[in-house]
Amino acid sequence: MRRALWIALLINAAMFGVEFAADWKAGSVSLLADAIDFLGDAANFGIALAMLGMLPVWRSRAAMLKGLSMAGFGIFVLRRAIWQASQGQPPEPFTMGAISLLALLANVSVAVLLYAFREGEANMRSVWLCTRNDALGNIAVLLAAAGVFGTGQGWPDLAVAVVMGGLALSAGSSIIRQARQELLTPVSA
User: Does the chain have fewer CB atoms within 10 Å around its N or its C terminus?
Assistant: First the structure.
């Protein structure tokens, strides 16, 4: 488990750098959202590593923090999409597509590493949900890039950003609920 988390952390940190740099060229809010999500996931993997071997109450508290950060990310993305809509400038679709394809390959690799932990306690489940959401987000950014290319307008990028924000809010809420339940239910160490 520890090795898988370290690999996932390194992949996510590297992809944050790649996507953040690519967003400067593309001007895509969905690509920026995905880049920030990679950064959040790298931090979540670091927290998950720190929590290995800790008492269940500490792992549940860490999961609560991760759930709150995921929900916060969702709110940030939704606000950024509203701001971008007011600007009216469509993003550059070729960079969006190429980088989101690379990100999808990275996330599928991480998902394969973490598949066994998808039904675990809240701390490890949150790691799985982050990775699943990232892969879904990458597919959505690919579709947005095709939509921007086909229409010459920015609304496909904005629509995907709203979906990504919604996924983050939904997953964050799910993790918060599970962590709260774990904190309320006494478990022996």
Answer: C
